[in-house]
Amino acid sequence: MRLPLVVEPELTSRYSEMVRLQKALRGVLMSVDLVVTSESRYDERCRIPGTLEFTACLEGLVLHDSLCSDLRPFCLSHAT
Length: 80
What we know:
Blueprint lengths: L4 E4 L5 H11 L10 E4 H7 L6 H8 L14 H4 L3
Parallel strand pairs: 1-2
């Protein structure tokens, strides 16, 4: 199953950001479920087996990353 995971550098309200993104996607002809998280929460949870972030880190595909130009998952592309 493909589930869009949006990782924001700083996030004050996950709910408000999900609402904003859903409104931006209103013109899309299919329903899209989004999961929004902060960068710090993603960094913590991408190391915990069984979490969405862990699976995204191992199997995910970055569709757009404003911080880097490669297409590797965030926690792999920043691990050094």
